[in-house]
């Protein structure tokens, strides 16, 4: 397997965590955003969406981190990232999508670049935007995770899941942009616990070979 990655990509961070949890060997191929390598013709030929990550496996190239993670889950079910109960699976996917669909895309590099260049926003404006959408998303997620974690150490009780894999990279971004996290004690406590686990720690941006 080959993972097209960038150390600071939070969507790639999710896939790195999943690969580590499942103990899968994978060659990492960095694509530097600063050099626009994710827009190069060779990468666009692999992933026409021009976004990181992509996973080359079984003669195909998969894009979209959650599709990749669900593929890994189906192909390598042990250890599981989703429980078997349909209701639990839907609740975990709901928390995951709250991050991956409702928070993360609003703060993507191409969105921030558009704010900066086309809409003439300075760093202050861009940072306000960034923190705003994390705060809006985390406000609902805090309630949801508080209920579903039921005082345990994962987003869904005692079950390590895809929701945890989505939470840690988003929390990393929240801290990087100095978001006020005091309203989100449950999310902070769960993320702090997850960050101490080897599969999560090894996937963090600073631990990647392409980190600068
Ligand atoms: N929904 C996609 C998002 C992928 C994505 O937005 N990746 C970011 C890095 S986290 C990216 O490639 N950004 C480049 C850009 O915005 O130009 C996924 O989950 O894989």
Structural notes for this entry:
The structure is a single chain. The protein is an alpha+beta fold and 212 residues long. Helix content is 52%, strand content 8%. It has 9 helices and 4 strands, in the order E-H-E-H-E-E-H-H-H-H-H-H-H. The chain has a 4-stranded mixed sheet, with helices on one face. The model has no long low-confidence stretch (mean pLDDT 98). Bound molecules: glutathione. Glutathione binds next to helix 1, helix 3 and helix 5.
Keywords:
single chain; 212 residues; alpha+beta; 9 helices; 52% helix; globular; binds glutathione
Separate helix tally: 9
Structural class, from secondary structure content?
A: alpha+beta
Which shape, going by the Cα principal axes?
A: globular
Q: Report, as a whole number of angstroms, the end-to-end distance.
A: 24 Å
Largest sheet: 4 strands, mixed
Q: How many beta strands in the DSSP annotation?
A: 4
* Residues in helix, %: 40-55%
CA-atom Rg in angstroms: 17 Å
Low-confidence stretches: none
Average pLDDT for all residues: 98
- Please, what is the oligomeric state? single chain
Strand residue content: 5-15%
Which H/E pattern describes the elements?
Answer: EHEHEEHHHHHHH
Task: Give the names of the bound compounds.
Answer: glutathione
Q: Strand order, biggest sheet?
A: 2-1-3-4
């Amino acid at each position: 397997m080959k993972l097209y990655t960038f150390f600071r990509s939070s969507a790639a961070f999710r896939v790195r965590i999943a690969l580590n949890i499942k103990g899968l060997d994978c060659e990492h191929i960095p694509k530097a955003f600063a050099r626009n390598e994710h827009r190069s013709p060779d990468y666009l030929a692999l992933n026409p969406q021009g976004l990181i990550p992509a996973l080359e496996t079984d003669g195909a190239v998969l894009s979209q981190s959650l599709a990749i993670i669900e593929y890994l889950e189906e192909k390598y079910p042990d250890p599981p990232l989703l429980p078997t109960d349909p209701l639990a699976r839907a609740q975990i996917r709901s928390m995951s999508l709250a991050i991956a669909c409702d928070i993360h895309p609003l703060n993507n590099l191409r969105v921030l670049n558009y704010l900066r260049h086309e809409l003439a926003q300075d760093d202050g404006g861009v940072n306000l935007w960034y923190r705003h959408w994390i705060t809006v998303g985390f406000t609902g997620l805090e309630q949801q995770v508080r209920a579903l974690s039921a005082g345990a150490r994962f987003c869904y009780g005692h079950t390590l899941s895809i929701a945890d894999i989505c939470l840690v990279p988003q929390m990393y971004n929240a801290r990087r942009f100095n978001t006020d996290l005091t309203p989100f004690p449950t999310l902070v406590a769960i993320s702090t616990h997850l960050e101490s686990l080897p599969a999560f720690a090894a996937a963090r941006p600073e631990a990647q070979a392409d980190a600068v």
